[in-house]
User: Which sequence fits this backbone?
């Protein structure tokens, strides 16, 4: 029996829900109706099942509409879609809504349904809001006493399959139009790497002679093949996939028959998990289940695959929570299954590194890789002029020739810089960029007088005063600490990474995934012995700041970007260093698997994989920059991971004493030549030493500029034989020459 008033809202609009529920209390007593929202779910109850049951018994569905609610896939697909389908079946249900904030409601299926108030509530005074909510409640009461509202959709065929396809495309557009996923195509440069097969003697992955600016161009270039999109964190891999889905949806809606247009399906692979019995589904089973769960009104995934119209966008292959070899085997078998049983569909993975994804490719089914290129000097300058014209020249002057420039060649970091640039000054490093981003977001919420960001337990009065009056904080990574908000967010990130980060058995397995937690588990981590409501406020504040992202479809919460997760975890690590977390075995006798065992598994053209790592390396580098005693932090690290200590030392925001730098150089020099060290450790030590400055090479200046003078070996003067009777003609005959004393570089440089 339908006898409930179901309230749909985004958790970012919690305060509006509370106000609406208070006003609607009398409705409960006016008749046999129950006003229902997810607040009615008790701890321990099955969250999704309770909502499903409430939807099935709803007589009136009230949607609290805002940009956040329209961007929620769960609200649009798991709450609105069942209501539309029930109404189309002729069930006694009224769908209605009112607007909290300005948003693109006209682009959604809600637009033709009855609107309970003519304008957004956030533009009203407190008294006007109370009056509006009272009118809204009275309208709901009238609807509850009758059947469906008189205002019905203008298009009576909304239940048709064509309309469901259209709604799917509209949801994709609505979701990926969010400013968080902004993409400037001018600064996208892609290189296509073609597999020459693993048995190639020489370079396996050869770059295509043409460069590309869009994934669609590459799909046209290599039809019918799966692809892997490569890029380090911040390069924009996930954003490119999301925009591909956005473009696909827009093209579908612009076509004559959207119901027959190609469909894309964006899926984060970090969500690939075992079932309740610990059994891992096949990739096709898992994708099919996920598709059916998110899109119950559309045909099953396998039907769409048979129609050859699907483009699977599988994000973050390196974050699949399985050992590298097993993960690659499963997904390689999957793309082979698609090629054999469902030809004509496309698959695009994203992945952090070629070392991880190369094994997807085989002789039978080559998988080209697409590398996102960092911005060159000209592109960096163009970016600065596009997004920060006023300070672009000053920013470039301060960037050119500095350590920071290489970091800022990634659009993610460059956008962080331009968003907070106010004088042409350059933050010292990544930590300062993140710190400035968070302070700017806090100030935005404070200036808008958002209740969560008023003086209280989350932020102190002094925090608000500092945020409101100055943008230049010392050090640049500093965040307000008078209230508990920022420290709690740090504790959450650290706990997430500690509990669910990689348990590495190889270098590939140590990829640091963007962790997502069950919402209730996140509350438990944050609350401890404190009130659960306070923990909810912290999560709400994190979402308002665009630091945290909640996915109601699977009841999880996580940081909006892996780099932000690492930054907040590093804040805690900086205050309580734990160098043992990155302990690395480096002696030949200690390394497992051994170098010989590793080489035995590699093809002729494969690169040598690095030594196993812990997954805490990037967090440790960030923590070094935020440590109150950088010398002590790095010196303690040397005993656990010498190469990582060398990496920390060259960061632009790490300033070590001359004595410690010299100790590091000598230690790395010794390690690079230590015959007891694994070859990979010696290589890494040499590379770290090159960045830090090999003490064997002397810095000098000459007529052509600065140069490094290598150690030289003196060759005494005398008579020497030159030539050969057995060689080529130009080597004959053998003659004697007289040479004066001369010197050669001790370390030969060859051009093989």
Assistant:
């Amino acid at each position: 029996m339908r006898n409930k008033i179901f309230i749909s809202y985004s958790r970012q609009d919690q305060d509006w829900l509370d106000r609406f529920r208070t006003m609607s209390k009398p409705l409960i007593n006016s008749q046999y109706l129950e006003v229902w929202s997810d607040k009615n779910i008790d701890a321990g109850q099955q969250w999704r099942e309770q909502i499903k049951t409430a939807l099935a018994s709803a007589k009136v569905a009230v949607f609290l509409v805002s940009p956040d609610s329209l961007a929620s896939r769960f609200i649009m697909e798991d709450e609105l879609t069942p209501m539309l389908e029930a109404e189309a079946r002729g069930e006694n249900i009224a769908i209605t809504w009112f607007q909290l904030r300005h948003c693109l409601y006209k682009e959604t299926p809600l637009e033709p349904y009855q609107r309970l108030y003519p304008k957004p509530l956030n533009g009203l005074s407190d008294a006007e809001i109370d009056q509006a909510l009272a009118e809204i409640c009275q309208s709901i009461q009238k609807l509850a006493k009758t059947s469906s509202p008189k205002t019905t959709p203008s298009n009576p065929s909304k239940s048709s399959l064509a309309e469901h396809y259209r709604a799917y495309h509209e949801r994709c557009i609505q979701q990926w139009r969010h400013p968080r996923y902004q993409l400037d195509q001018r600064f996208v440069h892609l290189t296509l790497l073609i597999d020459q097969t693993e048995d190639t003697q020489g370079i396996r992955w050869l770059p295509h002679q043409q460069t590309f600016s869009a994934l669609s161009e590459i799909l046209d270039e290599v039809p019918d093949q799966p692809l892997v999109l490569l890029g380090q964190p911040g390069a924009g891999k996930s954003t490119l996939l999301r925009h591909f889905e956005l473009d696909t949806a827009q093209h579908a809606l612009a076509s004559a028959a959207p119901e027959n247009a190609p469909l894309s399906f964006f899926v984060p692979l970090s969500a690939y998990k075992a079932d309740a019995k610990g059994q891992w589904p096949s990739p096709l089973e898992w994708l099919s289940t996920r598709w059916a769960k998110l899109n119950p009104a559309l045909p099953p995934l396998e039907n769409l695959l048979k129609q050859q119209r699907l483009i699977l966008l599988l994000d973050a292959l390196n974050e699949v929570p399985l050992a590298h070899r097993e993960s690659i085997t499963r997904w390689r078998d999957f793309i082979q299954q698609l090629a054999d049983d469902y030809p004509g569909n496309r698959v695009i993975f994203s992945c952090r590194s070629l070392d991880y994804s190369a094994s997807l490719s085989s002789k039978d089914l080559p998988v080209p890789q697409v590398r996102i290129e960092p911005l060159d000097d000209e592109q960096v300058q163009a970016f600065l002029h596009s997004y920060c014209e006023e300070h672009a020249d000053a920013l470039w002057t301060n960037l050119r020739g500095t350590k920071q420039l290489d970091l800022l060649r990634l659009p993610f970091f460059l956008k962080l810089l331009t968003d907070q640039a106010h004088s042409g000054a350059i933050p010292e490093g990544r930590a300062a960029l993140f710190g400035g981003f968070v302070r700017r977001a806090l100030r935005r919420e404070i200036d808008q007088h958002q209740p969560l960001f008023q003086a209280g337990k989350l932020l102190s009065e002094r925090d608000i005063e500092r945020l409101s009056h100055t943008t230049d904080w010392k050090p640049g990574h500093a965040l307000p600490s008078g209230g508990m908000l920022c420290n709690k967010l740090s504790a959450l990130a650290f706990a997430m990474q500690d509990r669910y980060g990689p348990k590495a058995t190889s270098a590939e397995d140590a990829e640091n995934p963007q962790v997502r937690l069950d919402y209730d588990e996140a509350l438990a981590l944050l609350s401890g012995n404190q009130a659960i409501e306070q923990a909810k406020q912290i999560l709400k504040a994190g979402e308002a700041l665009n630091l945290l992202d909640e996915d109601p479809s699977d009841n999880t919460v996580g940081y909006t970007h892996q780099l932000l997760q690492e930054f907040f975890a590093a804040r805690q690590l900086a205050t309580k260093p734990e160098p043992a977390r990155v302990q690395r075995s480096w002696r030949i006798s200690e390394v497992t698997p051994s170098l010989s065992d590793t080489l035995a598994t590699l093809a002729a053209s494969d690169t040598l994989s690095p030594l196993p790592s812990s997954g805490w390396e990037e967090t440790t580098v960030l923590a070094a920059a935020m440590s109150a005693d950088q010398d002590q932090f790095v010196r303690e690290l040397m005993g656990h991971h010498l190469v990582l200590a060398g990496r920390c030392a060259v960061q632009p925001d790490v300033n070590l004493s001359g004595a410690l730098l010299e100790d590091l150089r000598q230690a790395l020099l010794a390690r690079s030549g230590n015959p007891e060290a694994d070859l990979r450790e010696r290589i890494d030590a040499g590379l770290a030493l090159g960045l830090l400055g090999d003490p064997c090479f002397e810095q000098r200046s000459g007529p052509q500029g600065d140069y490094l003078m290598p150690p030289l070996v003196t060759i005494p003067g005398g008579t020497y034989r030159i030539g050969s009777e057995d060689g080529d003609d130009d080597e004959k005959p053998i003659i004697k020459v007289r040479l004066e004393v001369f010197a050669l570089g001790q370390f030969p440089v060859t051009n093989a």
Q: What stands out?
A: The CA atoms of residues 665 and 690 lie 9 Å apart. The chain is about 45% helix and 15% strand. Residues 712-745 form one domain.
